[in-house]
Amino acid sequence: MTTADIALVAALRDDIDRLLAAEPEVRSDASDSVHQMRVATRRLRSVLRSYRRLFVKEPVAVMVTELKWLAGLLGEARDAEVRADRFATLLADHAGQTPPAELGPVTARLVIAERDRYRRAHDEVLTALDSERYRTLRDQLSAWRTAPPLRHSRVTAEAADVFGAVLRSDLARVESLVRAEPTVAATERIELLHDIRKSAKRLRYSCEAAAQEAGDAADLGSRAKKLQTVLGDHRDAVESHRTILDRAAEAAAAGEPADLYEILADAEDAAAGRELSRYPATAAALFG
């Protein structure tokens, strides 16, 4: 029998190693490095929250706060990176239909501006990585690789039982949000779908932490990932649509043509609709 403490330390160590391994890549601005460190940070924070009853409360609360701080900084850079790539792809798809004189200003407002935002945000990340606050976080995580602050009265039970209870709780959280979704006003739906996505992601990470101990964790985690992906793609399209409209307003105020912005906005609106059409079946599949 594997006890919960042994399994949880192993899962936590893997997540910590992912985060620490990403740091030098971020420092050198390697391709996809910000994304990988952000995922590792969010993953670790999610696991600490899902399995919080197995940890001493205060140090884990502090750690979750610090991981949220780091994820926020990485998120600013990653979001700009995603927008720049998405806008570049959109513009490439429509470049043949657009006069070069109009394409240049649109590219500047969408792609170049987002790449500039990425560089500024990446500089902020580097400043944070050199700070005493991050060094303290990194040192604490290194210590937790082998000795996290566990509540030993709760981690001596069989891992399969403890992890299974956490998965059921995380699944119930997603289900409650999915059931609420048809009842909310249209103005609230976008944010509720975002909350469903975050809950599905948390369930996915819980499943991955439990993969060696709970027999159905891998399958459940795979289904949660599909729901997370569909709603993540929907969210990206919605955010892109909003940003394009904002840049269109700025362009119009500057006396620049806005026709291309309208075309791009319509394309993103259609993309959001396609992803949303996949949501009901993907959500239903999660609950078997």
Automatic annotation (TrEMBL):
* Alphabetized Pfam families for the sequence: CHAD
Q: Which InterPro entries match?
A: CHAD_dom, CHAD_dom_sf
What positions does the domain CHAD occupy? 1-288
For this entry, the protein name equals CHAD domain-containing protein
Q: Which organism is it from?
A: Nocardia amamiensis
